Amino acid sequence: MLNKVMVIGRLGRDPEIKYTDAGKAVCSFSVATTEYWRDKQGEKQEKTEWINVVGWERLADQAQSYLQKGSVVYIEGKLSTRSWEQEGQKKYKTEVVASQFRFLDSKNDSQGADRRESPPPPSNDGKPSNDSPYIDDNVPF
């Protein structure tokens, strides 16, 4: 089975970082994605979806250091729904648990001086990763 989510959107708020009782960092933020289309009458329509995102440990620290409200970001992760009891009622929240993110803002935008720099891309020493679509296993078909 596959549970993979890829989102490109704009942060709606600065990442908020918290720590578990065990000392693990976890950050949360929301990302907006907007679709545009024309209806049958030719009128422009738009719909914005707000997606909740969480990142753990290293990603939490990176998100807090490099992302801010308004940043454009690519996020990859998996969809997860958690539940808890609040005031006697069962509550649910669906969110993307990030496995990676990439900062997409241009350094030449109008707020360039206020933007944080993107972290360097991970090094793989020139070797393809296990999830690379370009791995050649010498399969003849």
Walk me through this protein's architecture:
There is one protein chain. With 141 residues, this protein is mainly β. The chain has one domain: Nucleic acid-binding proteins (OB fold (Dihydrolipoamide Acetyltransferase, E2P)), CATH 2.40.50.140. 6% of the residues lie in helices and 48% in strands. The chain has one helix at 58-66; strands at 5-11, 16-19, 25-38, 44-56, 72-86, 89-103. The protein has a five-stranded mixed β-barrel. The radius of gyration is 19 Å and the shape is globular. The protein starts with a strand and ends in a 38-residue tail after the last strand. Residues 108-137 have low confidence and may be disordered.
Give the secondary structure arrangement, pairings included.
Layout: E1 5-11, E2 16-19, E3 25-38, E4 44-56, H1 58-66, E5 72-86, E6 89-103
Parallel strand pairs: 4-6
Antiparallel strand pairs: 1-3, 1-5, 2-3, 3-4, 5-6
Low-confidence parts: 108-137
**How large is the radius of gyration?**
19 Å
Order of helices and strands: EEEEHEE
In total, how many beta strands?
Answer: 6
Percentage of β-strand residues: over 45%
CATH architectural designation: Beta Barrel
Give the averaged pLDDT, no decimals: 81
Shape: globular
Distance between the termini: 24 Å
CATH class wording: Mainly Beta
Helix content: under 10%
Q: What class would the helix/strand composition place it in?
A: mainly beta
Biggest β-sheet description: 5 strands, mixed, barrel
Tally of separate helices? 1
How many domains make up the coordinates?
Answer: 1
The CATH superfamily label reads Nucleic acid-binding proteins
Q: If you consult CATH, what is the topology? A: OB fold (Dihydrolipoamide Acetyltransferase, E2P)
**Largest sheet, spatial ordering of strands:** 1-3-4-6-5
